[in-house]
Amino acid sequence: MRASYVLACGWGAIVAAGAVACAASASTEEAQLRPDSGGGETVTPDGSVADLDVDADAKADDAGPLCSKAGWCATSLPDAELSMKDIWPLPGRAFAIAHSPVLGVKVLEWTDAQGTWAYIDDGTQNEPGIGKYAGNVWAPNENEAYYAVSPGYIYHGTRSAPGAPWSWTRDRLQDNNKPGRVDAFLGYPKDWMIPCDPDPVEGYSRDWLAPCSPALGVRGTSSGDVYAWLTNTIYHRKSVDGGAPGWIPEYIANDSEDPDEHLIFVAAGGESPDDLWFSGARARYGAACALAVRKTPAGYQRVADGVLVDIFFPCMEREGTPMIGGEEGWLLDIQTLAPNDVVGLKARREVVRISADDAGYSVDLATVPYEVDPYGSTSLWSEPGNLWLSTEGKGRVLRGSNVWDGGSYEISTTSLLGPLQQPVHRVRGTSNTNLWAIGDGYALHKTTP
């Protein structure tokens, strides 16, 4: 389903030869899904998913890596139990953050020239009281990187040149949110990592509204313009009165209207210091209103919000603030496409495109139906005309073409030696010929269109 609104208001592990992976599918209700030329799973006219054709899997080539028919190639991780959480690609290399039950949080670098992953952290992120979970990773260039780790640390690494040793510093962000947590009723210990249910019920692996993402991250537009977020606060790394750079709080979302209600940021996007977006939710006990905040030269503006009545009613419109329509839920991911043009992932199955002009904001929604993808999506990455989605269930990667203009999705087959019964945590790239899909025990690289 595609809908338009006007926002009126001022295998389990990688092995040396490769990885096991598979693909499934998703669609919009208006556009018929089709498999790509790589084979693998197909979508029948009634929207059900056919059995995987294992005979169509890619085979290992003695001269190169194991790749799927759609060009997703296995890379060998330094430890098989790594759960790859986030990745930031650059031309010729990529930085990633992972978590291991044995090693804790680890930070890695990939180089195309060497074709290997290597650890680059200094190990201090796993000192007592640190490293219970990994946040995200971001790099402005090949010799500088940032990453976030619990309970609220931002690490900054630099080196003199590729191949030189890394030097790391860290800063602790102050948590300005009130005590408690959104999903306290689930009985998890206090921690702003919103967890997945380790015991799926009826095919679900998490609460249907809450992301399995930390409310902690770092993102910038350049080496000199870097931001971080922790729960309800957005920080800017800058100097004050000529001193050393520090994390200065620039925006605090503290207008909750109920003791159990929280405003939380989980993602950011933007390539220009004059157009930066942060997304998340106003959430309370399984209910959520999509939250979006935009920074322009005029300052911070609340672009999307809503009113939570109670857990039995959807998000209601808030006077004086726009609200994104469609399904109730978190704005889990966000990316700028161009000035005044952003795309986001909402409620794990709605792709949202927000446009701004002199008249205000408008939004188009393209829905991936539940019947096709009951697990929901985990992340998105887009370039003009193309959209990529990672999904929660069985290693699915979807490719969309012009989904807001009558286009369609197709299966981007990741199947190598058999089905991957693990979610794809993140899909991200620099172009359609430099894409990554990562998850528990694997990192797949795609360098073909």
Structure report:
There is one protein chain. This protein is mostly beta strands and 449 residues long. The protein has a single domain, classed as Methylamine Dehydrogenase, Chain H (7 Propeller). The chain contains no helices and 30 strands. The strands form 7 sheets. Strands 1-23-22-21-20 form a 5-stranded antiparallel sheet, with no helix packed on it. A 5-stranded mixed sheet has the order 2-27-26-25-24, with no helix packed on it.
Shape: globular
Relative helix content = under 10%
- Binned strand content: 35-45%
SSE string, helices as H and strands as E: EEEEEEEEEEEEEEEEEEEEEEEEEEEEEE
Helical run tally: 0
* Number of discrete domains: 1
Please mark out the parts with pLDDT under 50 across 5 or more consecutive residues, or reply none: 8-56, 181-211
Strands, total number: 30
Largest sheet: 5 strands, antiparallel
Summed up:
The chain is an all-beta fold.
Keywords:
449 residues; mainly beta; Methylamine Dehydrogenase, Chain H; five-stranded antiparallel sheet; five-stranded mixed sheet; 30 strands; 0% helix; 44% strand
Per-chain topology:
Elements: E1 2-7, E2 34-35, E3 72-74, E4 83-90, E5 93-100, E6 104-111, E7 116-119, E8 134-141, E9 144-149, E10 153-158, E11 167-172, E12 216-222, E13 225-230, E14 233-238, E15 246-252, E16 262-272, E17 275-284, E18 287-296, E19 299-304, E20 331-338, E21 341-346, E22 350-357, E23 360-367, E24 377-383, E25 386-391, E26 397-401, E27 408-411, E28 424-431, E29 434-439, E30 442-446
Parallel strand pairs: 2-27
Antiparallel strand pairs: 1-23, 3-30, 4-5, 5-6, 6-7, 8-9, 9-10, 10-11, 12-13, 13-14, 14-15, 16-17, 17-18, 18-19, 20-21, 21-22, 22-23, 24-25, 25-26, 26-27, 28-29, 29-30
